[in-house]
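Translate sequence into structure tokens.
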Amino acid sequence: MIICGFEKFSMVDYDGKIACTVFTGGCNFRCPFCHNGSLVIGDVSSQEISLDEVFDYLNKRKGLVDAVCVTGGEATLQKGLDEFYAKVRDMGYATKLDTNGLRPDVLKDLLDKNLLDYVAMDIKNSKAKYALTTGVKNVDIDKINESVEMLKNSNVDYEFRTTLIKEFHTEQDMREIADWVSGAKRYFMQHYNDTEGCISHGFTEFSKAETEAFIPLFEGKVGMVGIRGYKN
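Result follows.
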């Protein structure tokens, strides 16, 4: 695994738990609004830290940290991800995966091995606008959909989520996303922040009120719909 850093104490990456968040290098998308740009288009080898450093920390924090979240970049690109989760599980931690869903084979393997307690999968946009939103031509939307359906039909706890940006998302897109994730346990709309780490800059955020106006599109289709990232 290529690990490029970890946040030792997070209260926002795993709802209801104190998490250590591990950041992996490399991604199969190039979303221009990605806030971890250095992990996607940067020199990940220069950022790499050892697995021993992560496990040394986790050994010391047993009882103080509840869970380990693996994010990116795109974590499912990493060789040995299953071995990492297995070791974390043996240490007594809950496990979470953040993924874009483009590698359903890896997701299935982790689920089959019962290595995940929670999965957060990004729904970048409506199916027709995936290439535009991810910065990658010819996105295999069938693979994304396979991951969506896999989670809907799994026993693992999960959520789908979308970061909303006016240049990419319209009301019609949100209607199509609502139909796509229909039957899901949870769906969150996330606030976009133009931070220093973003790949590109200058995109326009939705206000809290504008985001809340999309909630009725999901009501009755998903078990729970919410918004994240707004200060008030």
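Note: The first helix runs from residue 37 to 40.
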